[in-house]
Write a structure and sequence with these properties.
Number of helices: 3
Helix content: 10-25%
Largest sheet: 2 strands, antiparallel
Structural class: alpha+beta
Mean pLDDT: 84
Number of strands: 4
Distance between the termini: 9 Å
Low-confidence stretches: none
Amino acid sequence: HPDLTGICSIVKEEGSVVQGVVYLINQDVLPLLDEHEGETYYRDQLETKVKHTFVRDGDSKSMEPIKCWVYIGHEGRCDPIRKPTRKYMEMLLGGSDVLPPEYTNFLKSIETIF
């Protein structure tokens, strides 16, 4: 039922915060990522400031703005009426060790299907 399920996405809004991880990758892998994300997401480039939190000691610092490739969900798939699958939510929660507890709790509160 992939046509009925919801996904997470980035909403471009001045001053907003996106929770996640930034990876340093070789540009050669972008076509592979594009293929993996399929028709659900499109790739875009955003300039952002990254707040880096060191997992070991909890210290954090802000860094200079950087350009990041991001995948943004197509509007039809981001309809708030759509619900993510349990498997999709489990994948998101797999990053709980590097996400703020408030955000992890927010994700856990989202109703899932299938």
